[in-house]
Every structure is written in structure tokens, then in C-alpha cells.
Amino acid sequence: MGIVLKNISYQYKDQWQKEKQYAIRDISFSLEKGEYAALIGHSGSGKSTLLQHLNGLLRPVSGEYLFDGENVFGGKFPLQKLRQKVALCFQYPEYQLFEETVLKDISFGPKNLGFDQHTCEEKARKAMELVGIAPDLEDASPFALSGGQKRRVALAGILAMEPEYLILDEPVAGLDGKGKDNLFSLLRYLNEEKKITILLVSHDMDDVAANARRVLVMNHGELIMDDTTEKVFSREKELKTIGLAIPQALQFYNSLKSGGYFKNVSETWNKKKTVETAQAERNGKTAQAERNGKTPLTVEELAIRILEENRCFEK
Ligand SMILES: Nc1ncnc2c1ncn2[C@@H]1O[C@H](COP(=O)(O)OP(=O)(O)OP(=O)(O)O)[C@@H](O)[C@H]1O
Ligand SMILES: [Mg+2]
Questions:
Q1: pLDDT tens digits for 165-186?
Q2: Contact 255, 235 (CB under 8 A)
């Protein structure tokens, strides 16, 4: 059943007087357990406003929110229960670290949920392991850590509550390449192994293409597309009109295609076997060059790698 939004609209206070001004308007969609989805849209399109409804931080002016079939804003639904199950990770979550030690900070969530100290610390240590924070950092001050470590501590604080849904607002903003890769592999692990549902906001279409299986697109407060990653990114012209680009991987593949290299994606996939055989042969012959890491990839090899690493290609 998961998360079901029906015709949700929201106006900020200063928009009340203006009848037609909504931060988000008439949004309906559902998010099933196990999904990995991305929410994209131009700046000010309403993404953060929408996310804040999912854990009950904002209450819609109209519409309905059902969580596992129960009406969240019906008056009887305990919001604390919702916030444990649907965790919202804000942009720059490290700004919310406040405790003296890493362990205390991560334990804060479970403590709030009423667990005893021993259980809280157990959950905190498990979460530290998940995000890759070494045990010897548990007594360190969170403020003495690097930016990437702080982000992981903040995420551990959320994971320690063992949420079913992880909603992230631009989770890799401000991280360097390695920090970004680490965070995305963690999210993939949480989704594939721990079965945590993920919805993330991103302005980086390549990150979206490499990770999300479904994409929701917002424009001026409205949800205008909701489909698989490959279907959404096949609508290049429409995306362009609302200020969004397609992933560079797809742009690159398309230019290979228009340069006459491939007819379509399935033809490229079909070349996989031939390419792999050729690669194996070449590796045998040019062992020295391989060791030096200097053998360039052929266009076919490159194209196949692009297909493998992204989810934005229609098969
Ligand atoms: N606290 C607020 N008070 C009044 N209006 C707000 C507030 N927060 C957002 N808005 C307005 O609501 C609309 C949606 O904003 P929102 O922050 O949800 O957009 P966004 O898609 O997350 O943008 P960005 O990509 O820049 O983060 C915008 O018109 C914005 O000006
Ligand atoms: Mg935002």
C-alpha cells in the first residue's frame, strides 16, 4: 500500500490571499515499498514543499494522504509513527548535528522514540557501520569531522530509526566526487539489500539516470510526468521547455547514434557479446598495454558501458 497522495495542494501563508498561487497543486501519486524514485523540476517548482508533506511536516490545504491505507491528516494518525517510518533527510543535514559525540547524536532519534539507552546505542552502532563511520569515531565531536563524514553521521542518525522510506532533498549537494559516489552506493545498498524505499530530489540528471528507476517531474507546483526513468528521459523536447536537460550519458549516446554508430539501444546491447570476445582477445595480445592501463576503449565498448551504468535507456 505504501504512500498514497490524492490531490494534495499547499499554499504558504503569504500565498493565502492570492487565490491562484500554490506552492504545490493537485498532486497525486503513490510510492510502493521497494521503489527507488527521483523527483526533479526547476528551482521553485515545489519539490521540497512536496517532500515535507510525506513525513507530515506540512499539512496540505486540500487533498488526502494515505499511509499504508490510513488517513494521515484525518486527526487520529500519530505523526511520530509516520516520522519513524518515513524519514526526511533535508539538504545539508549536517547542519542539524548538535550533540557532543557522534554516538550521542546518532542515538538521538531512537531515544526520542522511547528506546532504552542500551538499545539506542546498539541501533546507533549498527547505523554507523551501515554508513561507514569507523567505531573509533563514536566519541569524537561531530563538529570535528569532515563535511562528508558529517553528512554520513547525519544520515546514520536517520537510519538508526530504521525507517521504511527514506526521502532525501538533494543528498549529495556540496560533496566531492568520492563522497558523492559513496553516498549513492550506500543508497543503492539500502534500497536493494535493506529494501528501504527511496525518493530523492536531484538537480543532476546523470545522478538520476544512474540510480532511479522511476522519475517524477514537477513544473510550477504541478506533477507533470511520472514514469520509468527511460520513458521520462525519452521526452527530451518537453523537458527542455521546462528548463530540464536529459542526462549527459543519454546525450552522448544519442550523438553516437546520430553519427551512425548504432541504430538503437537493443542493437548496442546485442553487440555486447562480440565486444566482450574482442576485448578478451585484445587483452591477451596486449597484456603489457593493459597493465599500463593505456588501451583505449572502442566506441562499442564505451557505448555498452554507458548503457550498463545508466537506467535512462529504453530497451
Ligand atoms: N517558507 C516559505 N514561505 C513562503 N513561500 C515559500 C516557502 N518555501 C517555499 N516557498 C515557495 O513555494 C514554491 C515552491 O518552493 P520549493 O522550495 O518547494 O521549491 P523547490 O522545487 O524545492 O526549489 P529548489 O530546487 O530551489 O530547492 C516557490 O514558489 C517558493 O518561493
Ligand atoms: Mg528545494
A1: 999 999 998 888 888 998 999 9
A2: no
